[in-house]
Design goal:
The protein is 44% helix and 17% strand. The protein is α+β, with helices and mostly antiparallel strands and 468 residues long. The protein folds into 2 domains: 3-233, Metalloenzyme, LuxS/M16 peptidase-like (Cytochrome Bc1 Complex, Chain A, domain 1, 2-Layer Sandwich); 256-377 and 407-456, Metalloenzyme, LuxS/M16 peptidase-like (Cytochrome Bc1 Complex, Chain A, domain 1), CATH 3.30.830.10. The longest helix is centred in the N-terminal third of the chain and has 21 residues, at 140-160. The radius of gyration is 23 Å and the shape is globular. The two termini are 23 Å apart.
């Protein structure tokens, strides 16, 4: 799951307890839009002398040009390596000297820059953030070093831990040439083809004030913070190109299989699913209850069947990726090579049970209590509040997305939850399978699940040449 989706899941899980049990809602915040389109969100919180911030730049990996997967991720990493008059070492030293933090990362549809500083260091915080966003050095040598590190990390994962790459293979096969089919961190092929000029072009075209949200929470005076941030960003230019719209991907009909051959593998990794729903899915509370029961916790239906009762795996989960357009729904697990069919058939059997209106009042009450009990202390800090405010703004969501969630969880019924299941989880005749394992040993048996497309794990990409 990418960081935005994880943040939204955290928001709804966190807010559920606060809203339904304690009557707590998100605190008030000021929203200011500068003439250049930059959105500021300011939340005063004076219990601790700290300020947390999150800047979200819309675009992310989905804005990578064709064939240049991983460019947004490389930009996010490189932008931290020197900005304004400071070198990479000087940026790091300035942050460390005051005990602050600042990090940037790329997700599917966003680039996220976040951190926290003591309130007394607000001037430094604003100066560093303004330099990173408006005056990144984008050093050529740093770019090359980071690019090579990513290529080597992918190669190492293919060799020792292919489970880390399953989402990339699954997305590539499921979405094909759609923007959601690209791995945010790129592939060996796409990264090797990236040049420093691509990085500079990405910044000029895809980064600017009109695509940015900056949320700040903590111990400050809102009027003074607004004045400082306005002065720091009022002259920032807009992005050189408008943000491209992402179309809704098509759901697959019929079964299909991708087999990624890793000779000598003693385990088979597998993902099974189809295109799911977007973050705007109206019955998201019902869906979260269903996913919790199906594969979202240790005592889930999937994990109980595949791990606890049968011992076929160390873990089985279900994933719901919900970006602005429908993402994916997937079963994810692994097993020893000779148990591949047994484990997959068991997972499919559990999926059949889920779709057969299996979720009753007792199970739903258990999931409701589980979700309501997940309210963590993380909702209390300035950095996390800043992330929540920025995430909601960037995603175009109202605060009711948080404040009403607990009531929606409490209102769920077997009928509403099972209806969400049948809307989202695929039938057994519309499944996309991805296997990574020893093809010589499992090639014949996986043909039972649908027409097979095969590729080698040594290929420098995450999708077969003939992928749609």
């Amino acid at each position: 799951m990418n960081r935005l989706c994880a943040a939204l899941l955290f928001i709804v899980l966190s807010a559920s307890t606060a809203s339904a049990q304690d009557g707590v809602t998100l605190p008030d915040a000021s929203r200011i839009v500068l003439d250049n389109g930059l959105v500021l969100i300011l939340n005063e919180k004076h219990d601790v002398p700290m300020i947390g911030f999150t800047a979200i730049l819309k675009g992310g990996a989905a804005a990578d040009p064709d064939g240049k997967d991983g460019l947004a991720d490389l930009f996010a990493a490189t932008m931290q390596k020197g900005a304004g008059d400071r070198s990479a070492a000087e940026v790091a030293e300035a942050i460390d000297a005051v005990g602050g933090s600042l990090n940037a990362s790329a997700e599917l549809e966003y680039i996220n820059v976040s951190g926290d500083f003591m309130a007394r260091d607000a001037d430094l915080m604003i100066a560093l953030l303004a330099d990173l966003l408006q005056r990144p050095a984008l050093d050529r040598d740093e770019f090359r070093r980071l690019r090579e590190r990513r290529i080597n990390m992918i190669k190492a994962a293919k060799d020792a831990d292919p489970g880390r790459l399953m989402a990339a293979y699954y997305s590539g096969f499921l979405f094909g040439e759609h923007p959601y089919g690209s791995a945010a961190f790129g592939s060996e092929e796409s990264l090797a083809d990236l040049a420093h000029r691509d990085l500079v072009d990405f910044y000029a075209k895809q980064v600017g004030a009109d695509r940015t949200v900056i949320a700040v929470s903590g111990d400050f005076d809102a009027a003074e913070m607004q004045e400082q941030l306005t002065a720091a960003f009022v002259d920032w230019r807009p992005a050189g190109e408008p943000l491209a719209e992402v179309a809704a991907p098509d759901r697959h009909t019929g079964n299909r299989v991708l087999l990624v051959d890793k000779p000598g593998a003693t385990q088979t990794y597998f993902w099974i699913g189809n295109v799911g729903v977007a973050r705007s899915f109206a019955a998201r509370a019902d869906l979260d209850i269903a996913n919790t029961l199906f594969g979202g916790r240790f005592t889930s239906m999937l994990n109980n069947a595949l791990r606890v009762e049968s011992g076929l795996t160390y873990g089985a989960r279900s994933h719901l990726e919900r970006p602005s357009q429908p993402g994916y729904v997937a079963i994810a697990s692994f097993t020893r090579t000779d148990a591949t069919v047994e484990a997959v058939d068991m997972a499919l059997g559990v999926l059949g049970q889920l779709r057969d209106n299996a979720l009753d009042e007792v199970m739903i009450a258990s999931a409701q209590n589980y979700i309501m009990g997940l309210f963590p202390p993380r909702l209390e800090t300035s950095p996390q509040l800043a992330e929540i405010f920025a995430t909601l703004e960037a995603a175009g969501l109202e605060r009711s997305y948080v404040d009403a969630y607990g009531a929606d969880i409490a209102a769920a019924t077997p009928e509403s939850v099972n209806a969400a299941v049948n809307d989202v989880y695929p039938r057994d005749d519309e499944l996309v399978f991805v296997f990574v394992g020893d093809a010589e040993l499992i090639r014949d048996v996986v043909t039972k699940y649908g027409p097979v497309t095969e590729m080698s794990i040594t290929e420098p990409r995450f999708f077969p040449p003939a992928a749609p």
